[in-house]
């Protein structure tokens, strides 16, 4: 039988693997210090985006809401905003019109690709009209 601390670390690792970080995930200090054989796990607080992503993962949606993906058909990078009938709704990182994509035509976007798209968006917004 694993300790509660080991279970918490396993859960933390599993959640991190699907892009979910619960900042306050820990062993409940009150039950952890008691004579109870099994301490409670404190899931803690998180913001709305993390809660939305966690719900998406629990529903089995792939890719989860809030993650960044590349549409392999044309190379556009988008943030997953929804799932409808086998299609994934995407919001462009660099701005522009949202689009739907078949789930099979997506692959995870690399952090470098996402950063490049965000920099392009910031640069475009900073340009003076002219």
Structural commentary:
The structure is a single chain. This protein has helices at 4-17, 29-32, 48-58, 111-126, and strands at 26-27, 41-42, 68-71, 77-84, 87-92, 99-102, 106-108. A five-stranded antiparallel sheet has the order 6-5-4-3-7. The longest helix is centred in the last third of the chain and has 16 residues, at 111-126. The radius of gyration is 19 Å and the shape is elongated. Helices cover 35% and strands 22% of the residues.
Keywords:
130 residues, alpha+beta, 5-stranded antiparallel beta sheet, two-stranded antiparallel sheet, 35% helix, elongated
Strand content: 15-25%
Strand order in the sheet with the most strands = 6-5-4-3-7
| Strand/helix succession | HEHEHEEEEEH
- Unreliable runs: none
**Mind summarizing the main beta sheet?**
5 strands, antiparallel
Give the end-to-end Cα distance, rounded to a whole number of Å.
68 Å
Coarse shape = elongated
Helix content: 25-40%
Give the overall pLDDT as a whole number.
Answer: 89
- Number of H/I helices: 4
Radius of gyration: 19 Å
Structural class: alpha+beta
- DSSP summary, beta strand count: 7
Write the layout of secondary structure elements.
Layout: H1 4-17, E1 26-27, H2 29-32, E2 41-42, H3 48-58, E3 68-71, E4 77-84, E5 87-92, E6 99-102, E7 106-108, H4 111-126
Antiparallel strand pairs: 1-2, 3-4, 3-7, 4-5, 5-6
């Amino acid at each position: 039988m694993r300790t509660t601390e080991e279970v918490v670390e396993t859960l933390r690792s599993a959640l991190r693997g699907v892009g979910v970080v619960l900042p306050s995930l820990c062993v409940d200090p009150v039950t952890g210090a008691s004579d109870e054989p099994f301490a409670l796990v404190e899931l803690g607080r998180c913001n709305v985006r993390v809660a939305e992503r966690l719900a998406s993962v629990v529903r089995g949606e792939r890719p989860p809401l809030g993650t960044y993906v590349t549409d392999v058909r044309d190379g556009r990078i988008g943030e997953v905003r929804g799932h409808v009938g086998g299609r994934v709704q995407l919001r462009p990182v660099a701005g522009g019109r949202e689009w739907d994509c078949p789930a099979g035509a997506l692959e995870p976007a690399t952090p470098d690709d996402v950063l490049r798209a965000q920099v392009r968006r910031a640069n475009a917004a900073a340009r003076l009209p002219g």
